[in-house]
Automatic annotation (TrEMBL):
Residues 27-131 form the Rieske domain. This is Aromatic ring-hydroxylating dioxygenase subunit alpha. PANTHER family: 3-KETOSTEROID-9-ALPHA-MONOOXYGENASE, OXYGENASE COMPONENT, IRON-SULFUR DOMAIN CONTAINING PROTEIN. Keywords: 2Fe-2S, Dioxygenase, Iron, Iron-sulfur, Metal-binding, Oxidoreductase. InterPro entries: Cholesterol_7-desaturase, Rieske_2Fe-2S, Rieske_2Fe-2S_sf, VanA_C_cat. It comes from Pseudomonas typographi. SUPFAM superfamilies: Bet v1-like, ISP domain. The lineage of its organism: Bacteria, Pseudomonadati, Pseudomonadota, Gammaproteobacteria, Pseudomonadales.
Length: 352
């Protein structure tokens, strides 16, 4: 699965930024696989750490600390030569395994064993590049729609949020904001849905809700009224998911068919730091008729811009996992359980 071994050696800068083991040992999306072309070094920020990503000629994406062990120069200011990263300071070259193969000032010498880059585990899956800065505590979440041909797949984003990643995930699993934040699309402001009681269970793959029913006047890129039944799932602290079962409806919100379509979404957050994030989304649609990928993306751009606007306004910026700091209603059960779930995992970074 394209997994690069993690160096046992830690860079001196590893003590900077996030030290939360739950987040360090988790997988985080740092980009779309297509973002990384061969021959270029890309700077990447994750949990306050500066990294580089580069693609070697065998197709693998390598993610390393943005640091040369020699004198600490940034490798992101260097370049690729013959499938190797060249440090811009003294020209040391590092191959795909992270080993130094050449010190130009002593070209006949075999570089020291410790002359190594600092690689992290990196995997390409579902059209994303996932990185773990520590030792992966679990596998990347399952998204079986990726290989299921009934589903059309559409990536959208990146959506930079000047906001906390957990606040972004909580917004994604919240249905009662639709009539206000997404008025005219996912809900009706003058006639907001009453949310019936729903349940949330903790499964091996995270928290999962029962179906939450809402009416959506412009429920997806097909532009038709829908009754939507959302099943929310938090796979990981910074990876959410919903499966939305939809039925065509009349303007009053009553279904006009027994047939259901399915629209699912994998919602990933790259935490740049505790209060800045990049959201990337993968939608899978088994709907009839099929909209164009452009129409799906256009709608996602509108919806996530609306979400970003409100999430960036939330204070305190770090999500309170102490429930008494904010107010929880039964209609917020998924968000409330999400916060408790984060707290029970022992997460300390980006929360209060
Ligand atoms: S700092 Fe990288 S080669 Fe000297
Ligand atoms: Fe939203």
């Amino acid at each position: 699965m394209n997994l690069i071994a993690v160096s046992a050696q830690q860079p001196l800068t590893a003590g900077d930024g996030c030290q939360d083991p739950v987040l360090l040992n988790d997988w985080h999306v740092i980009g779309y696989a297509d973002d990384f072309a061969e021959g270029t070094i890309y700077p990447v920020r994750l949990l306050e750490r500066e990294l580089i990503a580069w693609r070697s000629s065998d197709g693998q994406v390598h993610v390393w600390e943005d640091l040369c062990i020699h004198r600490g120069a940034r490798l992101s200011k260097g370049w690729i030569k013959d499938d190797k990263v060249v440090c811009p300071y003294h020209g040391w070259q590092y191959n795909g395994e992270g080993g130094c193969t050449l010190m130009p000032a002593a070209p006949d010498e075999t570089p020291m064993k410790k002359a190594r880059a600092f690689p992290y585990a990196a995997v390409q899956r579902y059209g994303f590049v996932w990185v773990c800065l520590g030792t992966p505590a679990s596998d990347i979440p399952q998204f079986p729609e990726w290989k299921d041909e009934r589903f059309m797949k559409v990536h959208s984003g990146p959506y930079p949020y000047a906001a906390n990643g957990f606040r972004a995930v909580e917004n994604f699993i919240d249905a009662s904001h639709f009539p206000f934040v997404h008025a005219g699309l996912n809900g009706v402001m003058d006639n907001p849905d009453r949310l019936e009681p729903y349940t949330v269970e903790e499964t091996d793959t995270g928290l999962k809700s029962s179906e939450v029913r809402v009416f959506q006047p412009w429920g997806d890129a097909r532009g038709q009224p829908l009754v939507a039944f959302y099943t929310y799932h938090t796979f990981r602290p910074l990876v959410g998911y919903f499966s939305k079962r939809t039925q065509a409806a009349d303007a009053q919100g009553l279904p006009v068919t027994d047939h259901s379509d399915t629209f699912t979404t994998l919602f990933t957050v790259q935490p740049l730091d505790a209060t800045h994030s990049i959201v990337r989304v993968l939608a899978a649609l088994d709907v009839n008729p099929r909209p164009t990928a452009e129409a799906v993306r256009e709608r996602a751009d509108v919806v996530f811009a609306q979400d970003r606007d409100i999430v960036e306004s939330q204070r305190p910026e770090r999500i309170p996992v102490e429930l008494r700091y904010e107010l929880h209603h039964r209609t917020d059960l998924m968000g409330q359980r999400y916060r408790t779930w984060l707290r029970n995992k022992g997460i300390t970074y980006g929360v209060i």
